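Async update (no meeting this week)

Hi team, since we skipped the sync, here's where things stand on the single-chain job. The sequence we agreed to prioritize is pasted below, unchanged from the tracker. I ran it this morning and attached the output directly underneath so nobody has to dig for it. Comments welcome in thread, and please keep replies under the output.
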Amino acid sequence: MRFATLELDGKVVPVLVSTDGNGWAAVPEWLGADFDGDMADLIGRCPQPTGHAAPTAWRPLDGLRLRAPLVPRRNVFCVGKNYHEHAAEFARSGFDTSAAKGETAPAAPVVFTKAPSTVVGPGDEVLPFTELTRQLDYEAELAVVIGKPGRGIRPEDAWNHVWGYTIVNDVTARDLQQKHRQWFIGKSMDTFCPMGPWIVTADELDATDLPVKCWINDELRQDANTRDLIFDIPTIIATLSAGMTLQPGDVIATGTPAGVGIGFSPPRFLAPGDRMRIEIGGIGVLENRIAG
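Output:
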């Protein structure tokens, strides 16, 4: 099943979306009970959404505004340098202040976070902050949405804690990332985490084998597969949960493949007006534009 967040009659509400992406149904119709909450509330209430039958009637989605499917209650967890070719291009770029001398692929997951205020939805503009950065970059990523809470989750049990998947664009100010060494400021400016278009439940996808692509102004820049992850999803979940309880609605961005702006010589940074289009197989398309 697919779950989105829509703007309806001035309210922002979670809904179900049909498989073809053209229709929507209200959550109470699916639950068979009243519901008045956001997507995080829904995930907490239904940690296994497959326990309810899919709707049989759909209303047209055309003309309605999709919002980000989920704004997490706490920071978005992110994994850096998690594809071999991207780790290598990042090392060559001179922007990586986190690597040990001579390191390309990290020995353990590199984890950072993005503030919830970074999250915007499909079609929303990303602010360029030209007064603060001249090195704006894109990063196409598969994101995991946690359903069942847990701490000390073993890798072999990790899949049981996954509610679904969505797309994230980990927009980054590279000069600020480099300047401050710790990546939070360069990653956490407002609008720097486009997410969507919806969440696809875990039973619908094999997250170990999904194509990940990104176009900038119709030019294909990133083209990889989640098979190429250095640290797989169970390892990421086990690492994060070792000493911290993962909660329903937590979002984990699993890393970006090669082809980001700093991977080119010279680098190819984003400019106002540029269009970013990310497609992940089985989920859909997330498209956003740099304002200006």
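Quick observations from my side:
Residues 200 and 219 are 27 Å apart (CA to CA).
The first helix runs from residue 27 to 31.
Reply here if anything looks off.
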